[in-house]
Design goal:
Elements lengths: L1 E4 L10 H8 L2 H4 L8 H15 L3 H8 L8 H9 L3 E9 H10 L4 E9 L5 E5 L6 H10 L4 E5 L5 H6 L2 E5 L3 H6 L4 E3 L2 H18 L4
Parallel strand pairs: 1-2, 1-5, 2-3, 5-6, 6-7
Antiparallel strand pairs: 3-4
Bound molecules: magnesium ion.
């Protein structure tokens, strides 16, 4: 069994609003909860960084200070006792690798930045965009059952393609897509859903 989790908004706070608050750039503070089109969202963030002349290294100082939600490390440890855990996120390795380490060294699949000669972000490689569904399908075709958790529309394909979706404090648009999906308002709720799913799997061979 594999648990495929979104990162920001689920087990750690959103990083860009932290950057937005520090640099007072409204385009930084927007998140996937505000704009469903991730490409548009990233373009706005990159343009804002370029115009302000902010280097990736400056942003990393702030991003690397972000801590997981209280209890998140324990939550992942409990999931690991039941199966494999991967984080599939639209975040960037340059920001979130330390966060993955703080969460107990969990596997992170994320995007990467491109930099110019001065260390300012010039673009991005979206390894994850549109790929969440493929990653889940790959696990499934290898014979794994996949349970997933996400909070925003950028998790739609992840949640649709998995065997057991958990909506974590979902935005309204996501809730409309999965009206009968398991819903969690905190990590205790989420763990209870996953434990029940694992018990069903052990008993019936299916997660639902
Ligand atoms: Mg999220």
């Amino acid at each position: 069994m594999i648990f495929a989790l979104d990162l920001e908004g689920c087990i750690a706070p959103e990083i860009w609003p932290v950057l937005g608050a520090t640099y007072r750039l409204p385009d930084f503070a927007l998140t996937t909860r505000d704009i469903g089109d991730f490409d548009e969202l990233m373009q706005r963030r990159v343009n804002a960084a370029r115009q302000a002349g902010i280097r990736l290294a400056d942003l990393q100082k702030l991003a690397h200070a972000v801590e997981p939600y209280l209890g998140a490390r324990e939550f992942i440890a409990r999931l690991r006792a039941m199966g494999n855990v991967v984080i599939i996120s639209d975040t960037f390795h340059e920001f979130s690798d330390p966060l993955a380490a703080k969460l107990g060294g969990v596997n992170l699949f994320a995007n990467r930045f491109e930099l110019d000669d001065e260390g300012i972000i010039s673009g991005f490689k979206l390894r994850i965009r549109g790929q969440k569904e493929r990653i889940v399908s790959g696990f499934k075709s290898a014979g794994f059952k996949v349970a997933a958790m996400g909070d925003s529309m950028n998790d739609f394909s992840l949640l649709r393609s998995c065997d057991f979706p958990v909506l974590y404090r979902p935005v309204d648009a996501l809730l409309r897509e999965f009206p009968s999906g398991a819903r969690a308002d905190n990590l205790d709720d989420a763990l209870a859903h996953f434990e029940a799913a694992k018990a069903r799997l052990d008993e019936t061979g299916e997660l639902l």
